[in-house]
Please model this.
Amino acid sequence: MKKILITGANSYIGTSFEKYIHENYPKDYYIDTLDMLDPKWKEYDFSKYDTVFHVAGIAHKKETSENKDLYYKVNRDLAIETANIAKQSGVQQFIFMSSMSVYGLDYSDELINLETRLNPKTNYGKSKLEAENQIIELANDKFIVSVLRPPMVYGDNSPGNLTKLFDAVRKFHVFPTIKNDRSSISIDILSKEIRKIIEAKQTKIYLPQNDRYMCTYEIVKEQMKMEGVKVYYTSIFNPIIKFLIGKFEIITKCFGDLKYEK
Model:
């Protein structure tokens, strides 16, 4: 039985992964969760675990000049310190939850891969990339570092932008029929990928995504149909929306193309 420590309590990805393992592989893995808000976390015994899955971080929070330093304190410094303690404790593998934000793109006509330039624009993306760089330097034959850069993660009760979009559609009952392609990953697929990464034990950067790209219009239509919410779908706004892609952040994130290479 492999022993896994999830560092970061109450995160959507961490709790979803733990639930997935308990429901599907209860005899193969043992999981504990460590609350990183407790200052005594540094006294915790990491040595009994095979893998540390680090999900603690700040996301889905409006960036301001006041909270800028917090991103680096939590997303970078805390992650690096946790990785160092894991290595010193003899943990075999450290999995770091990074983000597609390290590329600094809201939309792109080009497919993104591991050769794509890293140019984060936000404190969230910058702090994640700086953490990646320093944690990967810790890797050796006895300490595996696996980095995940997932695109938008969605699922029931997810805290991300798709949930906010669904809420807006339920309120206004109107949505454009514009077609686009974006990489995304359901929490179920992501949980499966994390388990595969634990089994593979490779120092590697992963770009997980669903088999199919997501079209915002289609996923909204599917969700509203499932909920029985009546929505008027129209093409009248499509020319305006296409013109505004790249000019307004919320429009760009909803309707611009942003895809990992298959």
